[in-house]
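To close the chapter, one final illustration. This time we ask the reader to focus less on the individual chains and more on the assembly as a whole: which components sit near each other, and how the overall shape emerges from the parts.
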Amino acid sequence: MRITAEGLSWSVAGTPVVRGVSLDIAPGETVGLLGPNGSGKSSLLRCLAGLRTPDAGTVRYDGACVRDWSARRIARHVAFAEQDAGADSDLRVADVVGLGRTPFRDRWRGPDATDRAVVAAALERVGLTALAGRSWKALSGGERQRAHLARALAQQPYALLLDEPTNHLDVRHQLELMELLTDTGQTVLVALHDLSLAARYCDRLLLLHHGRLVAAGPPAAVLTRERLAEVFEVDADLATDALGRPAVTYRGPLGGSPPRHAALTAFTPRLIHHSTPHEGTP
Amino acid sequence: MAADPAAHRAPVDLPLPADLPLPVDLLLPAARGHVAAGEPVVAGERSAPARAALFLLAAAVLAGSLAAAVRIGTADVGWAGLARVLGARLGLDVTPPPPLVDSLVWDLRLPRVLMAALVGASLAVCGAVLQAVTRNALADPYLLGVSSGASAGAVTVVVLGVGASALGVTGGALAGALLAFGLLLLLLRRTGLDSTRIVLTGVVVGQLFTALTSLVLMASADADTTRAVTHWLLGSMAPARWDTVAACAVVTPLGLLVAWLCSNALDGLAFGTDTAASLGIGVRRTRLLLLVVTAVLTAVAVATVGAIGFVGLIVPHGVRFLVGPSHRVLLPYAALAGAVFLVWTDAVARVAFAPREIPVGVITALLGVPLFLLVLRRRGEL
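The assembled structure is written out below.
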């Protein structure tokens, strides 16, 4: 499914968060959404997922403006997953994944054979079949992320919008998740913090800075030394890795804060002072 | 007509059973066959007939409790007497019972026991719903300030005699409850009805009406009125008559049905506003609907029998421990368990210190606290 936005703006309590973003994501494309903290990634994702009504601009799915669509109709087209959702639930994993069937169920009946089969398939896809009967509370952060992805897959969406799905995941699971996303063959827009991971798996990258889209294109075109300095305020080297993708090596933060060794030297005497035996610290 | 994305591309392809009755465009045929249709997702899960049997068993326990509770009392009517009263009232060909027995069973005990069942079911379900809507394990039906409003209304009628002839205690309490809920909605009207705001606003409204109740009592009531009002404030089934039972019998099942139809949304709300909305749940609309339903159910219950504490707090937790947190299953069992719990605690309230009657609210707390502690302990949370 093609997702397009024209002149999208959204603000909270008078503070603009997303400013005039236009984008076009082609069917089947995996697109990485990059930007520092507070650059508007999460808000832009929520506007595109129909969870926020933009102050200006339009969101279109395959050319149809979704402004007046019901939540249910949107949920039948796109699935959305955010980080750290639902820490206090004690539903079983299978029931949480089953929530992905909500947009297809009517109120009167429980899960049917289709729902159960889709849930089982989604669990298998993310490798959580063995944990289907486990309580949500008993899951690790990484298992929850994968369960949320399974829930999104159970929605059988035409597009996946994911907010930092690799949080809490170890390296292997990060790679597996990114491969799984690209394997769906669906339109995927994924907000990521790890620039190298984004460069490795995404067809295209979008770079946000203070709510504006400052760059869009193939990873090698978006990730340049000058842009990383300007947007992320880091000093980084870019090379091409064995797979032909940009690889980022960080030298350190730019400006403001002093070099790390200076900070350590300044701090050391106080540490020594506080750890004298008389004060009883181990 | 908007373009249908299905025309462009199949949705996320999952390996599904080949024999599944699905719309053709939903799945790519090549990927099917990994999972057998109809198999439970979780190993060892009960089958549908087993689940139905279990629920019928629980319903039978309620029916048995109702019958037993009608028999229990300071005057022993016996099973035969009970059968004769019911038989005669239902127009069957039986020896009519003595008028005193008939009046005792039909006019006093039966409406009282039915009222206990309806109120118990109502409070337990309201508690479960509000715990989910506010994402707060301590939520109970009185969180919205409805019971405080009812108290203020009842006290105003009883002590000050305002509208005493037109409304009566029940009418006054109902008016007070709805007034409090109206104020709550007014205060919440421009918000997204998020959990914290509901809890805080409810507490504030409740405190206001509690203060008004105390003010009226302290300023105007004599000892006898205070005693009568206290009995009502603690909750007692004694005022239950056929007219109030009839009102409850119409409102309560309707409210419970509406809550049950929202059970999927209640599950989804545990994951926060955005995730719930992304599942196609109209979050604000659902929250508002559930607030109105719980407020009306609570108002009707409280108006007749006072604010019986603890049922709406402990029964949902106990039932969640037994049948799991999924609301589709939780709500019906909470209704049954709440009904059984209140029917029995009311029976205890009637006979334990006979002929003196203890307000049932005292008994629910006395029995409820140890039960609640037991549940917490079994869950490893204490």
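The CA atoms of residues 40 and 379 of chain B lie 26 Å apart. Chain B has 14 helices and no strands. With these observations in hand, you are ready for the problems at the end of the chapter.
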